[in-house]
Amino acid sequence: MENQYDMEVDVREVGGGGIAFSSVAEGDRDYFNEAWLPTTHQDPWSKAQENAAKLGYTYKGTSVGLTVPAYMDISSVSELENYRDELGGEINGIESGAAVNDQTRKILENNGLDGFSVVASSGPATWQALENAVNNEQPIVVTGWYPHWKWGSFDLKYLEGAQTGQSPVFGDPEDVFKIVDSEFTEEFPKEVVCFLKVSEVTDEEIESLMGSFRNRGDMSKREAASQWIENHSEDVNAWTKQAEECAASDGPVETLPDDATFSREQST
Predict the structure, then answer these.
(1) Those residues with Cβ within 8 angstroms of residue 144's Cβ, 6 or more apart along the chain or in another chain
(2) For 15-20, what is the mean pLDDT?
(3) DSSP string over 71-90
(4) Entry pTM
(5) What is the pLDDT of residue 234?
């Protein structure tokens, strides 16, 4: 945004999607690019959508579920009780208040799995626990989702009956949306709005982007982003070309309907 459109950009990282939705709806922030809908972030979206809109897709076709290393001799959530003692009755969740933690508790309840608790922790702490377990080939269960860098770093699998498409708790495949405040499309230059609307990532792009940040060494996040842009100029140029075509069209940039969902439309 800064290089291509000479825009001043202020990025703020927050813990938990709820804060991101409310800050956009209240006008404190303009844009959030990781709204998982219509299931995972349905609660904060329902509270924010009166003053916010779906600008476009970030990624189409997500998955969520209970995740274990491939070396564990378990394939279904119903088999978890066989690992209760080895796991210490713990399933590693993420930040307190995250939707996936509550979804996991519901999965346990629906499957009559007593004696388990979902341990809320920071994302980095959860992934460190996963890495430690994998390095020692120990059993572990974490809340997992795709896209996420862990799938490219470890050999993992979802548990049957506890993943997207196999349980009403996790629902059908979702899409990742870009959420903007209600004044966004009028407030900013059309080409900028268009760029944010069309810059949707593929599996290859999102995995390489996540890998660049995950393995950036001593580089700052800004330096890692600049390096990715340089190494993926064809992808970025494709987005800017689409943005130019969008900006040249008549009329304002249209946001998506509140209930827009690509993946579920494809499955019906």
Answers:
(1) 64, 65, 66, 67, 150, 156, 158
(2) 81
(3) TSS--BGGGGGGGHHHHTTE
(4) 0.81
(5) 95
